[in-house]
Design brief:
The relative contact order is 0.05. This protein folds into three domains: 416 residues, Pectate Lyase C-like, CATH 2.160.20; 77 residues, no CATH class; 147 residues, Galactose-binding domain-like (Jelly Rolls). The strands form six sheets. The protein has a 15-stranded parallel β-sheet that branches. It is globular and about 95 Å long. It contains five helices and 56 strands. The chain starts with 37 loop residues before the first strand and ends with a strand. The chain is mainly beta. It comes from Robinsoniella peoriensis.
């Protein structure tokens, strides 16, 4: 953010005031050309009569900063071993990229301590309704350090507390613990300065923050940074964060959360499951990194990234999140927390984190990890154990396009995975270990928390507990989960639910030492070295070696940092690197390969580029052939050509694939089009009416009657308003809310009058929420009908059909 004026503000405590900050006269400080001025403060050796500009001339108390205006390159240095009672609040100040403002320490010894003790009170107001009316949007907050509309500020090597006198709260009624003033160790606010840039917090010890137990989006907890509605957004720009890094901080015994960045007044721009990159980058936060932090005994969530584009959350440790829930405070309206998770983020990456002992008692969630109303979330290379709610939660209908891969769960509790009404999540190459006498189930016991969709492949489910959960858990509740090439050890015992794969591998995976991953926190709260998990490496003769299924757009390395080689991965988190036997099967991250057909090859693709997108065994050679001749690399592939795969060791052993070039279609605009259906659910604003397939809104869907319909009624027809050429139908399935109505077998018919129909295409679609196409020879028509010859249903005996959007197109 660009600021004309820079100022420093140390707020005095506000009582019964509606102003966020008090007015303080500012005095310009002496400047050191080019590098700024250092201000020294020592509670041990300082004197407020000194100049404050050298160690020998240090001031004694923080309030001397009231008369300082900070600028680029200035620093505030607190002497190690000092203890200060007070707070530091900055507003409308900024350094530069070359010369940031810094607050840190000097000298040898313990970190200097700032005890806020409920002072440093300011007023927070989002200026608009929250996304959930139950959340508080305004109120007084006490913060030891407040960064309000600042830029290029770096804070490091401090100890911070903000305690309350709990006698005042507990002497009459324990409910008052939820009525405390919100408190923070470090608070950040972006509001009237546009983009708030370059805020770095490093090596802070923040503890004993006695905040409110339930105010989720107030600045309340160890570190919390949020975004308020500007007074004049047209003048100052959209408030948001850019380049925030919180690293190597130890956050302990805080209420509510440990580290949270950053709820925003722009929350209503993030509606829908699929989040557009341009929307998230414009209204959300960019270059957010949370790494190397240790959060212990957070009252609720440990670490949360919110409304951010491609945030990176790595190398963090959550130890016993949710301790306030364990106390069972009455009247606590939202008793949920997980350890480390996103909210309304796009393409967030969570990697190399550890989470353990998350409280399960009194906690509606309690998992280590949670894909929560975000798009494109990836969890990889993480370790969880002894979390009360289990390893993983995929939370509700806007937890879209999530991936959980190469993670280790050891002795997590309650259940392994919670599929809470989510669209398809990809869960592959993980290890789930259950030992001791645990009753950990595969799925959550609550029906609503096992209903989501999942693709589970190449995982090892390993259960040697002496008290296995032998209830009728079932592997596929909702009938919307698919299982491929997993290994199930200990799950084929008598009384256990039947396995979801007919030819499932049930043999011992031959781990080096299963159950041996560390169960205590590492020294200094740091993550463990990968060598601590070598008990989960597999032997060279393991049945998991080269037994997985190919995963498109897979990771590049395994849990231990070994490069993924070949085309068929090992099952589990360890890639042995053992050379796979020759295979003439090919795979692609770009094209659709069905048996011996390669589809969706764009027109104009050269043979060279085509082969770059084909993955084959190292022992096989791939050639693009036209008849008996190999085509030149710069030749565009056509449907007259084939892919020939040859065994290098035996050229007589070959396999041929047909190449299907995608025709180029243009979509018709929906203006003037109408839709009718054989059945629909009436009187619902988001689900039912056939017109919803033409409204450009992914959150509304056409749905047949909820009571079910006859198969012959499971159709929808589009009237284009006039007769014109048509050769393509695009079907966009529902993205959330279950799988009812997903069309898996279809018939497309066309008509000029809406009465006489001609069949144009039939086929099948996979059971997922990805966009589907039906192509057919171009024909002049006014009406196009899509009939669901087969479709998914979560209710036995009921027929449903549904669609979020439908488009028609013509060949260019």
């Amino acid at each position: 953010m660009k600021k004309k004026f820079l100022s420093f503000m140390l707020a005095v405590a506000l009582v019964c005031s509606t102003q966020a900050f008090s007015t303080i006269p500012y005095v310009n400080a002496a400047e050191t050309a080019g590098v700024g001025t250092a201000y020294y403060i020592s509670s041990r050796n300082g004197d407020n009569g000194n100049s404050g500009t050298s160690e020998g001339e240090a001031w004694e108390t923080l309030d001397k900063l009231e008369n300082v205006t900070l600028g680029p390159g200035d620093s505030v240095l607190l002497e190690s071993g000092s203890i200060f009672n007070g707070f530091i609040h900055l507003q409308n100040v900024g350094g530069t990229q070359e010369n940031p403002i810094s607050i840190s320490s000097y000298g040898e010894g313990n970190k200097p301590v700032i005890n806020c003790n409920g002072e440093g009170i300011w007023y927070q107001d989002y200026g608009k309704a929250m996304d959930n009316s139950g959340h508080r949007s305004s109120g007084y907050v006490s913060s030891a350090i407040l960064l309000y509309d600042v830029d290029y500020v770096e804070i490091s090597n401090l100890e911070i507390t903000n305690k309350s006198n709990d006698f005042d709260y507990f002497s009459t009624n324990v409910n008052k613990a939820s009525g405390r003033m919100d408190r923070t160790g470090v608070a950040g606010i972006a509001k009237d300065g546009g983009t708030m840039e370059h805020i770095y917090l490093d090596d802070l010890f923040i503890h004993d923050i006695s905040g409110n137990l339930q105010d989720k989006h107030m600045n309340n907890g160890g570190i919390q940074m949020n975004v308020l509605k500007p007074a004049d957004e047209n003048a100052t720009g959209i408030a948001r964060y850019q380049d925030v890094k919180i690293s190597n901080c130890y956050v302990k015994d805080v209420s509510r959360a440990g580290i949270v960045v950053g709820y925003t007044y722009q929350h209503d721009k993030f509606n829908g499951a699929a989040l557009a990159d341009e929307i998230v980058k414009k209204y959300g936060h960019t270059n957010l990194v949370l790494e190397g932090n240790y959060v212990q005994n957070a009252g609720n969530d440990a670490i949360v990234a919110m409304y951010a584009y491609q945030p990176v959350i790595q190398n963090n440790v959550s130890d016993t999140a949710g301790v306030d829930l364990d106390d069972g405070y009455p009247g606590y309206w939202q008793s949920f927390c997980a350890a480390i998770w996103p909210w309304k983020c796009k393409d967030a990456v969570f990697q190399y984190n550890e989470a353990f002992d998350t409280v399960g008692e009194g906690n509606g969630d309690g998992q280590a990890w949670d894909i929560d109303w975000s798009d494109g979330t990836v969890y990889q290379y993480n370790y969880s154990h002894n979390n009360g709610g289990g390893a993983m939660l995929i939370c509700l209908n806007e937890a879209y396009n999530g991936t959980f891969r190469y993670n280790l769960s050891q002795n997590d509790l309650k259940c392994l995975i919670t599929f809470q009404g989510n669209p398809l999540a990809k869960i592959y190459n993980n290890v789930f270990y259950v030992g001791g006498d645990l009753e950990t189930a595969v799925h959550h016991p609550a029906a609503g928390k096992r209903s989501g969709a999942g693709y589970l492949a190449n995982n090892i489910f390993y259960n040697v507990s002496t008290n296995k959960n032998v209830s009728d858990d079932g592997w596929n509740p909702g009938n919307n989960k698919s299982f491929k090439n997993n290994l199930y050890y200990g799950y084929s015992d008598e009384g256990m639910p039947g396995l979801p794969e007919a030819d499932a591998i049930t043999a011992d995976p031959k781990f080096e030492n299963p159950g041996s991953a560390p169960v205590t926190v590492n020294e200094g709260g740091k993550i463990h070295d990968r060598s601590a998990f070598e008990g989960y490496k597999i032997a060279d003769n393991s049945p998991a070696v080269n037994a997985g299924v190919y995963i498109p757009n897979n990771a590049t390395e395994d849990f231990f940092g070994n490069k993924l080689t070949g085309i068929v991965p090992d099952i589990g988190i360890h890639e042995t690197g053992i050379e796979e036997s020759v295979s003439l099967n090919v795979y692609s991250d770009r094209y659709l390969i069905q048996e011996q057909d390669i589809r969706n090859v764009p027109q104009g693709t050269t043979a060279e580029d085509f082969l770059k997108n084909i993955k084959a065994s190292a022992k096989a050679e791939c050639k693009v052939m036209k008849g008996s001749e190999q085509v030149a690399p710069d030749t565009a592939v056509t449907e007259e050509m084939v892919l020939k795969v040859v065994n290098k060791a035996n050229e007589q052993e070959t396999k041929t694939y047909n190449i299907h070039v995608v025709k180029v279609y243009a979509e018709y605009a929906t203006e003037g089009m109408t839709a009718t259906a054989g059945s629909f659910q009436p009187n619902n604003t988001t689900e039912g009416n056939p017109s919803y397939v033409l409204d450009n809104n992914m959150n509304t869907i056409w749905h047949t009657a909820w009571s079910g319909c006859d198969r012959s009624e499971a159709w929808i027809s589009i009237d284009m308003g006039k007769e014109q050429s048509v050769g393509m139908l695009k079907y966009v399935p529902r993205k959330a809310g279950g799988v009812n109505g997903l069309i898996t077998e279809y018939e497309v018919s066309v008509s000029t009058n809406g009465t006489d129909w001609t069949k144009a295409a039939t086929g099948s679609w996979e059971n997922n929420s990805e966009i589907k196409y039906a192509e057919f020879p171009s024909v002049n028509a006014r009406y196009v009908k899509l009939w669901a010859k087969d479709s998914k249903s979560q209710e036995a005996g009921k027929v449903f059909a549904s669609a979020a959007e439908i488009r028609l197109g013509y060949e260019e």
